[in-house]
Amino acid sequence: MTKNLTCFVVCLFVSWMVAAQKRAYEHINDLSYLEQADESGDAYRSERCKLDVYYPKDTLNTSAIVWFHGGGLEFGEKHIPYGLREKGVIVVTVNYRLYPKVQHPSYIEDAAAAVAWTFQNIEKYNGNPKKIFVTGHSAGGYLASMVGLDTTYLAKHDIDADDIAGLIPFSGHTITHFTVRKEMGIAGTRPLIDRYAPLYHVRQDAPPILLITGNRELELLGRYEENAYFYRMMKVVGHPDIELMELDGYGHDMVYPAIPLLLDFVVQRSKEPQQ
């Protein structure tokens, strides 16, 4: 189901601002998420495979949001999106290797390693490994979807992708990413669905999913439509918990108005089951 959400987003944001309690937060920078000391001698890998953890110091059992930056898999830096600070959640923001210094699937493997690190370490930062949500914008949304849908990447770290509490790609490819296609000599206007496409991994037992895009007329070429097709195929296979939201009035640069929707999704999927 698609929704025009401008007023709804504003109301959600206001409610979050009112409800937010004043807490002490700590921001730890540039932690390596490599599983062990990197002995490969790859200086670029050691430089890029870092993450930050931003967390409330006085709460326990806290939900964590893993955020992957956008930039077409070619540029970008880890950051905490405006609107995610001081919201009572942990934010794990990740750098990963970029094209042309690496090619696929290196950046997907990096994303999986960062998510695995989060599962293995989040309790040190007052987090709950059962409440880890994976998200990102554009290329970051694509990485979130790939890590959560193709179970092989996390399985290499002995993590079950289905233990992710939710996937929330912001305006992410569901077909094979255009940079992956460029690496294969395929034009950006020629769609492809192979094992590097989230659509290739449609399955009933995937984590809960919230797809958010900008308005279909303002988005990058076909971005809303490919998300709509992914949504439909997930419904066809019987996935029980997926939503598609289209932000009226916004194009590809739709992070800020989508943040309250992300936070609401995290709250709803983090509720303890009733006894």
Summarize the structure.
The chain is an alpha/beta fold. The chain has helices at about 5-20, 45-50, 105-120, 140-150, 150-155, 180-185, 225-235, 255-270, and strands spanning about 25-30, 50-55, 60-70, 90-95, 125-135, 165-170, 210-215, 240-245. It has an eight-stranded mixed sheet, with helices on both faces.
Question: Roughly how many Å apart are the termini?
Answer: 31 Å
The CATH architecture: 3-Layer(aba) Sandwich
Task: Report the radius of gyration as a whole number of Å.
Answer: 18 Å
Portion in helices: 25-40%
* Biggest β-sheet strands, sense, barrel: 8 strands, mixed
Poorly predicted regions are 13-19
Structural class of the secondary elements?
alpha/beta
Q: How would you state the average pLDDT, rounded?
A: 92
| Percent in strands | 15-25%
Number of domains: 1
CATH homology superfamily = Alpha/Beta hydrolase fold, catalytic domain
Strand order of the largest sheet: 1-2-4-3-5-6-7-8
Q: Which CATH first-tier class would you pick? A: Alpha Beta
Number of helices: 8
GO molecular function: hydrolase activity
Protein name: Alpha/beta hydrolase
Keywords: Hydrolase, Signal
InterPro entries: AB_hydrolase_fold (IPR029058), BD-FAE-like_dom (IPR049492), GDXG_lipolytic_enzyme (IPR050300)
